[in-house]
Amino acid sequence: MKKLVFVLLFFSFGTLSNVWAQNGAIPKYREKVEITVPKEKFRLYLLIGQSNMAGRGIVEPQDTVGNPRILRLNRQGDWEIAKDPLHFDKATAGVGPGLAFAREMLSEDDDMVIGLIPCAAGGSSIDMWKAGMYWSQTQSYPYDDALARTKLALKHGTLTGILWHQGEADSSPAKVAVYKSKLETLVAALRREFNAPSVPFIAGELPDYRTNEELLNQVFHDAGKDIPYFAVVSAKGFTALPDGIHLDSRSQREFGKRYAEKMKDFITDDDHPAIIITTQPTANTAVMQGCITGSLSVEASVTEGATLTYQWYAKTTNSNMGGTIVSGATGASFAIPAPLWAGTYYYFCEVRATGATSVRSGVATVTVSQQPVTVVETSDAPLARAYPNPTDGTVTLQFEATGKYVVSISDMTGKILHIQTVNNQTVRMDLSNYPAAVYMLTIDDGKRKNTMRIIRNYHIS
Prior knowledge:
By secondary structure, the chain is α+β, with helices and mostly antiparallel strands. The chain is built from 8 helices and 25 strands. The longest helix is centred in the first third of the chain and has 24 residues, at 2-25. The chain is elongated and about 100 Å long.
């Protein structure tokens, strides 16, 4: 019996030794702090992805040395001095790239405080990084939780960057083939949620000891050609823990430094102008086809006394990547085009200044509804039927009977644009020279009067 007990104890020690080694240096106490610096000096970085962002490296004493200028948002939503492990997605959380990243970034500004927002979820695929998706391994909603925690952090600071490391769960050829579009959707969604269209998004490569890593790493680099304010961090030369999956502590610390070097490329030097969009265009605007009015506008400021210029772009999708230049739309305000057909349109503005990195606004969605054809009756029955309505130029009036009618066309202000007397039962009204708009057509037979709306459209090439 004693021999059996010894064997069981030895077995238990052998299987748990890595966990015990992890627990050996994990700090037992965390020091909460109050935020006293201005929001612009409290720079927030969102850490998202799967286990190699959360970190599984063995925690060593150097990883538990805190700095009052490097904080983390803990599980309860309180700020505390950051020490590894930053994450809490699983019990095996250890050293990731976040703390080394923050230490390297701290040298950029003596007055700066860094706030790390750990939200990675071990084992999660990119499909889990969408609204409403539940990940059973971490018993969490990765995307929704990241939004909620970041918006909580934004009460005190300014979102300065997003760090992403994910892909081990999506490295098969079939998943790689659709990864880029999913990544573009994720980046756009996060920027839209945080009203930060130019916040840098930095993705880390998969380490080269992984199977198929070169396939997904190429996707990251291809994405960098199409997604603005996007960079990729090399994972060359890294080594794994004995599991062959997770980066060891040395590699994670180096990874954090490499993330920081890429992030620094996006931080404008104090000697150069910096553009800040202070007011984004209205996110959603609804207008009526044929009587479109209103405009979209953006407000921005720039340092160093530089001069701002603007260029508006149109898109067929909800994104501020790519786009078609809107001719003549080079001011802070942009009049919504009057001749739009019913549908949904997307616009954004790129703000520029000499010597500064240009900044793109959030996307403004314009929804155009079809104008309902309404008849305003001042008689018991309509005197005529008008068709087609809307029209590209000509409207046919079919009267109820042959007789004498006075027909007038006026604009929406009541100004009469045309008037004529009609003696036929059918007559064609030519509106081809009228601009696209809604007009009021009035028919009067001396005893009764009808007024109806006529929509004048023209096709957009």
